[in-house]
Amino acid sequence: MNTIRLLLLSSLFLTLPVMAQRRKAPQLTPEQQAAQAKMQRMIANTQRIMFIDSMVVDKDFFLQHYRLSPEAGRVASYETIFHTRQQPHSYVYINELGTRCYLAQEAADSTIQLYTCENIDNRWTRPQALHGINDNNEFRRVNYPFMMGDGQTFYFAAEGDEGLGGYDIYVTRYDSEENLFLHPVNIGMPFNSEANDYMYVIDEYSNLGWFATDRNQPADKVCIYIFEPSQTRQTYTASGLTPAEIATFARIDRIADTWSNSSVHHAALERLQAVLNRSQEKRTDSQFHFVINDDITYNKIEDFKAPENAKRFQQLATLRYRYQRLLNTLDRARDYYATASNDERDELKPEILASEQTQHEIYLQIHLMEKTIRNTEILFLTQKR
Q1: DSSP notation for 96-142
Q2: In this predicted model, what pLDDT tens digit does every residue of 306-331 receive, in sequence order?
Q3: C-alpha closest to that of 207 among 258, 269, 162
Q4: Could you report the per-residue pLDDT of 186-219, keeping only the tens digit for each?
Q5: pTM of the entire structure?
Q6: DSSP tag of 27
Q7: Sequence-ordered list of residues with C-beta below 8 angstroms from that of 204, at least 6 positions apart, any chain
Q8: Is the link from the previous residue into 88 a cis peptide, with omega within 30 of 0?
Q9: Please, which residues have CB within 8 angstroms of residue 102's CB and are 6 or more apart in sequence?
Q10: Alpha-carbon span 89 to 123, nearest angstrom
């Protein structure tokens, strides 16, 4: 009996340290608890995105693998555009016409901020700071700019305490009346992570999106993801997935898991292949016809004489493309709605209605822009006679 009791006591003493370790697990600090709660919210709100392809490339040359339509503008390193090695960590976006540039510049204290300048007589003007994006210095480093064709929607990556870790991707909009950018918003998962995520670009003309990340990569490598942009933000809320299952999409564990529609994925792959195969040359002169009046039709950007009309036509081309793309997206959404579950329909219905409203607004903007271009061009030509 004593032997049995001794064995039981010995077993108990061996177990106590393990139990004590479990009971004495370190408590999270308030900051850690807040970070954990933020991560859980971000995972729960993960955007439903179809990733078309991905590639692991050398970090120092990752931009060589971005294949954008000429109409989408150009992303490049600071050194490539300004021919100087004084800004090795800074990046630049130049619009299609080459008239405006958004750039990052690093200061002596290693902070990075965003600026803009214009090309006048083939020379860049002095960079001016962008107002609104980092006026309160909430970010230490702001870099990787990209402006959409509408001239208002602006993406960038920033490093600061409010992100998930490293560089996070943010979006903002330019308020032309106030001449500043609105407070930026973190675009969330799956684009952002606890690693560095940056250089988010949307090519509206090929309907492809690109971004780079160093998550799960060696120090000298990054992974570039190519995805299909979405006109409306859909999450996995109504999908019936568990939080753990949604987390796999947030981390982009397998891009094949996002191919819920094989025909859409196949069409996106074809567009990507076309982009990879095509020449990066500018459009030829005959690629558009814009009627000014019964006697005058323009075929190239240089034909526009009235100030700002070349820029207006670029905005018009973007509006036309957005309109057609939105029509295609709505057709797919309506087809899906017809066979969707009740929960999915509840989520889709307001998004379809919002897209239809946006479609109508773009339609009105197109006709107003066409009228403005014609009237200002005719007035200018008349005054020059």
Answers
A1: TTS-EEEEEEE-TTS-EEEEEEEEETTEEPPPEEPSSSSTT--EEEE
A2: 988 888 888 888 788 778 777 777 77
A3: 269
A4: 999 999 999 999 999 999 888 999 999 999 999 9
A5: 0.70
A6: P
A7: 71, 72, 148, 149, 229, 318, 321, 322, 325
A8: no
A9: 92, 93, 94, 114, 115, 116, 130, 145, 146, 147, 154
A10: 23
